[in-house]
Amino acid sequence: MMFLTVGNELPFDRLVKTVDQWCGASKQHTVFGQIGSVGEEGYKPVHFEWEEFLSPQAYQDKCAEAELIIAHAGMGSIITALEVSKPVLIMARLAALEEHRNDHQVATADRFSQRKGVFVAEDEHILIEMLDEKSCRSGNMALEQIEPYAEERLIRTIRNFILS
Amino acid sequence: MIPVKQKRVLAIASSGGHWVELRRLRPAWKDCQLIYVSTSKSREQELIKEAEEDGTPLPVFYDVVEASRWEKLKLIRQLLQLLIILLKTRPDVIVSTGAACGYFALKIGKTLGARTVWVDSIANAEELSLSGEKVAGCADLWLTQWEHLAESNRKGTLRYEGTVV
User: Fold this and answer.
1) Quick check: A141 pLDDT over 70?
2) In this predicted complex, what is the ipTM?
3) A39 and chain B: CB distance < 8 Å anywhere?
4) Contact across the interface for A76 and B27, Cβ inside 8 Å
5) Residue A20 and residue A33: Cα distance in Å, rounded?
6) Cα–Cα dist A6/B150, whole Å
């Protein structure tokens, strides 16, 4: 199963639609999507099951169950994928397409592209290629599980401040 | 100096990525009296689960209404909810990773005498978030997770001390 998530805030039709088309064409993959509040107008997938939002527990469970996580380039989605050591394929929201108020997700995607297990699709075409590519949806990618905590230095700085 | 166990820390972030980042800082307030605030009631579940698993006391949890910068009425409601929570809990220290609710909490908390920490989200690589920028005057510890942003801060009050991931 692949878990598609667009995060807690805005819908992301371009990502959802691309995955839906790919899913319809390939016919051999199961996807579950958390697609945000699409309302009346937004794109609703026809080739896979979806919910607008999931409870934190259900979200965790889907991440743990998935062999690949497909996500917008939001920190919550990326960190959660790393915490459960699952490969994550991300596409950034673009301000020019009114998918977010600015292009900060492009910078986020850039930064995390060097991490093992994080794959960045610059656009929908590359996303489809990457979805097709075996390497990136293999369930037995050996990924290190990251610590559930921030860097030691940051924690120490804040703790010292609290205790001072 | 007040002993750790009597330090009251209020950790606040909106639900979603900000919350995920905030929670990764939790060793920083280990053993303190803890109050968590977020914009979704559902976040309490993971706190309950964690307290059960670790055998630690369940932190106090409050939820406030979710509000984006365009939703003026909701923002006012959120502000009032936070005022009540802060008056009731009177934390010594407030820590936030964003967004609007964290900004309000630091702003009100500061006037009530709390010491304040802002950790701007790692998602803001090119410039600080809007709340992160506005919170400058009332954050005693004002942090970015991007070294170049700290370096280009003219007053030198914005610091880089590592990242959440």
Assistant:
1) no
2) 0.96
3) no
4) no
5) 9
6) 30
Q: Which helix (H) or strand (E) holds B118?
A: strand B115-119
Q: What are phi and psi of A83, to 5 degrees?
A: -65, -30
CB contact, 8 Å: B45 with chain A?
yes
Joined together, the tokens standing for residue B84 give: 């009540």
**Measured between alpha carbons, how far is A117 from A68 in angstroms, rounded to an integer?**
10
Domains of chain B: 4-160 (3.40.50.2000)
Longest dimension (CA), chain B: 46
- B47 CB within 8 Å of a chain A CB: no
For residues B106-126, one letter each, b for 16 or more C-beta atoms within 10 angstroms of the residue's C-beta and e for the rest, the string is bbbbbeeebbbbbbbbbbbbe
Question: Which residues in chain B are closer than 8 Å to A162, comparing Cβ atoms?
Answer: 7, 9, 28-29, 32, 92-93, 95, 117
- pLDDT single digits (tens) A28-70: 889 999 999 998 889 999 999 999 999 988 999 999 999 999 9
Which DSSP string corresponds to chain A? -EEEE--SS---HHHHHHHHHHHHHH-S--EEEE----TTTS---SSSEEES---HHHHHHHHHH-SEEEEES-HHHHHHHHHTT--EEEE---GGGTSSSSSHHHHHHHHHTTSTTEEE-SSHHHHHHHHH-GGGG-TT---PPPPSS--HHHHHHHHHHHH-
- Which is nearest to A85 in space by CA: A129, A42, A36, A144? A144
Query: Which domains are delineated in chain A?
Result: 2-163 (3.40.50.2000)
The answer to whether the Cβ–Cβ distance between A79 and B162 falls below 8 Å is no
Instruction: Please answer whether residues B68 and B100 qualify as being in contact, where contact means their C-beta atoms are separated by less than 8 angstroms.
Output: yes
